[in-house]
């Protein structure tokens, strides 16, 4: 997760399970050009103002991106199986 770019983004890699989540849309948006991203890697892009919520529990990670009015723009989640330490 990062917050540098003035936009909201979810980018994935085709070569790994890494997810790039950007929440930098809290202030003035920059209206950047994203045409060089591969469509299958760019899961979500919004150059308006908004925010991201993160909900973490032992087995799940839930991410949601919102506009300034609280409308959900994009959701992503992942989970893992717990392994016993016995």
From TrEMBL:
Gene3D superfamilies named among the record's database cross-references: 3.60.21.10
Name of the protein described by the UniProt record: Purple acid phosphatase
InterPro entries: Metallo-depent_PP-like, Metallophosphoesterase_PAP
GO function terms (MF aspect): hydrolase activity
Organism (species): Trifolium pratense
PANTHER family noted in UniProt: PURPLE ACID PHOSPHATASE 3, TARTRATE-RESISTANT ACID PHOSPHATASE TYPE 5
UniProtKB keywords: Hydrolase, Signal
